[in-house]
Write a sequence for this structure.
């Protein structure tokens, strides 16, 4: 079991697939209110995910990055479970499509009028597109 080596068992899943299920030294999560770094022995925590990168340190293939959009993370002292609505490896990101998503979000923002819900949805679309573009830029 991972806890004998002071490593976390980290599992990253979406409704469609499991992207990562291994031991790691640490994991950084894009919580809705900012990034959280988790090490072995972390206090239990439930966090809502925003859009950004999950970074796994010290996994079987070295450091790994995954772009995630929305969901939840459960942190326990010896394991982290990340349930993301969507998650992509950097090489899976379609940059032109992310740029189109950003344009769509900016147009939604301009057309939101007085609706707080429309502004919130526009900001979600923009945040997701910008996070994908940043992840794609890091791989080059």
């Amino acid at each position: 079991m991972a806890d004998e080596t002071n490593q976390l068992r980290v599992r990253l899943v979406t409704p469609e697939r499991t992207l990562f299920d291994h031991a790691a030294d640490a994991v950084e999560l894009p919580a809705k209110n900012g990034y959280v770094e988790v090490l072995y022995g972390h206090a239990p925590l439930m966090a809502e995910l925003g859009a950004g990168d999950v970074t796994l340190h010290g996994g079987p293939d070295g450091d790994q990055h995954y772009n995630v959009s929305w969901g939840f993370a459960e942190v326990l002292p010896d394991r982290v479970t990340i349930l993301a609505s969507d998650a992509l490896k950097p090489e899976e990101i379609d940059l032109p499509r992310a740029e189109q998503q950003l344009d769509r979000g900016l147009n939604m923002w301009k057309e939101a009028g007085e609706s707080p819900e429309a502004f919130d949805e526009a900001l979600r679309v923009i945040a997701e597109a910008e996070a994908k573009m940043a992840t794609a830029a890091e791989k080059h």
